[in-house]
Amino acid sequence: MYGNVLPESIAKRLETELTYIQKHEYAVYYWISRCMVRYMNDSGYYVGAHGSVGSVLVAFLLEISDTNPLPLYYYCPQYHYIDFKATALDGFDLPDQVCPVCGCPLKSDGHNIPYETFMSYDGSKMPDIGLIFPVSKQYNEFAFMQELFGVNKIAYAGAIATLQERSAEEYISDYEAKTGDYFTEEQRSYICKKLCGIKQRVDGLYPAELLFCRKG
Ligand SMILES: [Zn+2]
User: Fold this and answer.
1) Residue 3 Cα to ligand 1 middle (Å)
2) 132 CA to middle of ligand 1, Å?
C-alpha cells in the first residue's frame, strides 16, 4: 500500500505495534479477526469494526478496521509520494491537492490516533475488536469458523428474548392485515397468550457472540 520501501515514520510505528503485539501474544486476535472479515468481504459483504482497534495500524493494514490511525497525510498510490506535513483537524478534512510527481489528485487519510490511546502505555491492554456482520450472514460466518477451527472449538452464544404481549399483539395484527382473516377478541387473546413467552433470538447490533475455546 505504501510502496516497497516504507516511509520511516510508518515503519517505526509498525515496529512499535508489532513489538507490543508479540510481547503480549495478541497476534492470534488479529489473525482470527482478519479471517472473519476477509471471509465476509469475499462473500460480498461489508463488516463494520469498532473498539480499540481504531488506534492500531496493524488492524488497518490487515483490513480489519477502516480507521487509519496515522497522523494525517497526503498520498499518491501510484508513485508512493507521501506528505505528513499537512495540517487540519483530520485527514478527511485536508483540502484537495495534486501529486507533485505525477499531477494526479492525491488521496488523504489519517486520524492521528497513537497506538497507546486505547492499548495503554505498555501496550498490554487486550485488543477490543468489535466486528459487526450482516444479521442474515451470521450463521455463515459461524459455519466458516467451525470449518477453520473445528466444530468443538466454537460456540455460538447470544442473547435470547422472550416474546412480550405487545409484540404478540403486533404479530396478530400483521397477520390479520396480510391475510384479511380477522379474529374475534376471544381468539385474539387466546393466540396472544399462546405466543407470549416464546423464545426468540435477538437481532440488531449485538445479536450474538462467537466463543473460541483454547486448547486443553
Ligand atoms: Zn503521484
Assistant:
1) 12
2) 35
Determine the distance separating the centroid of ligand 1 and the alpha carbon of 114, expressed in angstroms: 27
Angle between helices 138-149 and 27-42 (to 10 degrees): 130
Distance 2 CA to ligand 1 centre (A): 12
- CA of 146 relative to ligand 1 center, distance in Å: 44
The one-letter amino acid code at 88 reads A
Rg (CA), the chain: 24
What stretches of 24-152 show up as alpha helix (H) in DSSP?
27-42, 57-61, 116-119, 138-149
Per-residue pLDDT of the chain (216 residues; tens, 9 = 90+): 888 889 999 999 999 999 999 999 999 999 999 999 999 999 999 999 988 889 999 999 999 999 999 999 999 999 999 999 878 889 899 999 999 999 999 999 999 999 888 888 888 888 888 898 888 888 898 899 999 988 888 887 777 788 899 999 999 999 999 999 999 999 999 999 999 999 877 665 555 677 777 675
Q: How far is it, in rounded angstroms, from Cα 70 to Cα 215?
A: 36
The residue written with cell numbers 478527511 in the block is: 92
- Residue 10 Cα, ligand 1 centroid: separation in angstroms? 19
**Secondary structure (3-state) at 66:** coil
Between strands 73-75 and 82-83, the pairing is: antiparallel
Neighbours of ion ligand 1 (CB under 5 A): 76, 79, 99, 101-102
